[in-house]
Design goal:
This is XRE family transcriptional regulator. By secondary structure, this protein is mainly α. It is 54% helix and 0% strand.
Length: 76
């Protein structure tokens, strides 16, 4: 059975990518023009970001949006 990608998985992936680029939650939130608590909520799987937010996040990380939906070994 194939694993479903969840908001928790999305949040973990965002945290992984953000940290790998050296951003704190606060500095990343400023970059994407969102509140730090909202970024934290996404990373904890408490928030389900819409498409506009996903696109802003991907642009800030300089990656295609689909990269937010894969873990490091692309098995998500």
């Amino acid at each position: 059975m194939e694993k479903t990608f969840t908001v928790n998985d999305f949040g973990k992936r965002l945290r992984e990518l953000r940290k790998s680029r050296g951003y704190s939650q606060e500095s990343f939130a400023l970059l994407v023009e969102l509140d730090r608590t909202y970024i934290g909520g996404i990373e904890r799987g408490e928030r389900n970001p819409g498409l506009k937010v996903i696109l802003k996040i991907a642009e800030a990380l300089e990656i295609p949006p689909q990269e937010l939906f894969f873990n490091g070994n692309r098995s998500a």
